C-alpha cells in the first residue's frame, strides 16, 4: 500500500509539471490574452462602425483565424474616438481617423511611429496614400472624394461648379456639411475660391457663406441624414463624399454626383498605432493585411471603401460610385491640414456666430 501511494504521488507530480509546462509554453508563444489567460489575443480597433458585417467577412474574421486573435471594436465619430485616446481611459491598439484628425493626434504625440518594413503593402498604395501625415505614421487605407450631389429633376441646368450652390433656384434646398465634420474645412476652402481668393482665405470664405445662408435648409453632421432629405425632396443639392451616392440614389434616383470644375477634394482615412500599445507588431501586421490587394478588392466590390492599393483592378460596374483609378486620383485636391487644425477653433467660433446664427 505504501509503495502504491508513493507511485501515485509521483505520477500526480509528473502530470502537474507537464500541464504547467504546456501552459507556460502557450503563453510564451504569444497565444495568451493580454491578461495572460490562455486563449486568443485581443486587438482593439477604434473605427466608425459602418458596414460592420461586410468588414467582418472581408477583413476581421480572416485575420482573426490566421493570427489567433479576437478583434474588439470601439466605434464612434472622429472627435469622440480621438478624445478617448487623449484621456487614456483604456488602451486602443489601432485607430482609424480622417487625415485631419490624424494630424491632431500626431501633433499631440498620441501615436507610435510605425516600422514600414513590417507593412510592405504600403509600397503598393497610390502615392497620395503612402504617407499623408509623414513617413513615421500610418498610411491611408482608402481614398475617397468629396464633390456635389444634386437632384437633376430640380436643377434648371447641370451643376458644374461650387459656385452653383449659390444659384437662386436652390433657395431653401441646400444642405452644407457642418464645420466640425471631415468635409467642413472643404466648405471654407471652396467658399473662399468662389469669393475670388487664389488660396484659402477665411475672411472671404465667411463673407461668402453669409450670402449662401438663404439657400441652406440644413448644416448636416452626418451624411446619412441626407438620404431621407433627398427622398422627401427637402434637399436638392449638397456637397458630400461620393461613397453616399448609392444610398441617396436608392432614396432618389434623380440624384447624381459630379466633380466640380474646381476639382473634387481628396478624403483620406488613415490607420495609426496608438501610443502605449503592447501589440505594436500585431497592429502593424493588421494594417498590412487591410492594405493587401485581396482585402482592398473585396471591400471595393462590396462598396465598403474605395481602394488605396493601386494593384486592385475593377470592372466599370465594380468601380461605379468609387474613387478609383490613377487618372481620377491624380486630379484630387487637398487642403493643408496643419493650417486647418491651427485655425479650427477660431473658425468654429466664427461659424457659430456668423453662419449658423444667420
Describe the protein's architecture and organization.
The chain has 358 residues and is of the alpha/beta class. It has 2 domains: 41-143 and 267-330, D-Maltodextrin-Binding Protein, domain 2 (3-Layer(aba) Sandwich), CATH 3.40.190.10; 144-266 and 336-356, Periplasmic binding protein-like II (D-Maltodextrin-Binding Protein, domain 2, 3-Layer(aba) Sandwich), CATH 3.40.190. Helix content is 42%, strand content 16%. The chain is built from 14 helices and 9 strands. The strands form 2 sheets. Strands 1, 2, 3, 4, 7, 8 and 9 form a 7-stranded mixed beta sheet that branches. Strand 1, helix 2 (52-67) and strand 2 form a beta-alpha-beta unit. It starts with a helix and ends with a helix. Residues 1-38 have low confidence and may be disordered.
- Biggest sheet features: 7 strands, mixed
CATH superfamily of the largest domain: Periplasmic binding protein-like II
Instruction: Give the domain tally.
Output: 2
Instruction: Please tell me the CATH architecture of the largest domain by its name.
Output: 3-Layer(aba) Sandwich
Computed CA radius of gyration, to the nearest angstrom: 25 Å
Average pLDDT score: 89
Topology (SSEs and partners):
Elements (H helix, E strand, L loop, with lengths): L1 H27 L12 E7 L4 H16 L1 E7 L2 H10 L6 E5 H9 L19 H4 L9 E12 L22 E4 L6 H11 L7 H11 L3 E5 L4 H7 L5 E5 L3 H7 L3 E4 L6 E9 L6 H12 L1 H9 L14 H4 L6 H5 L6 H20 L2
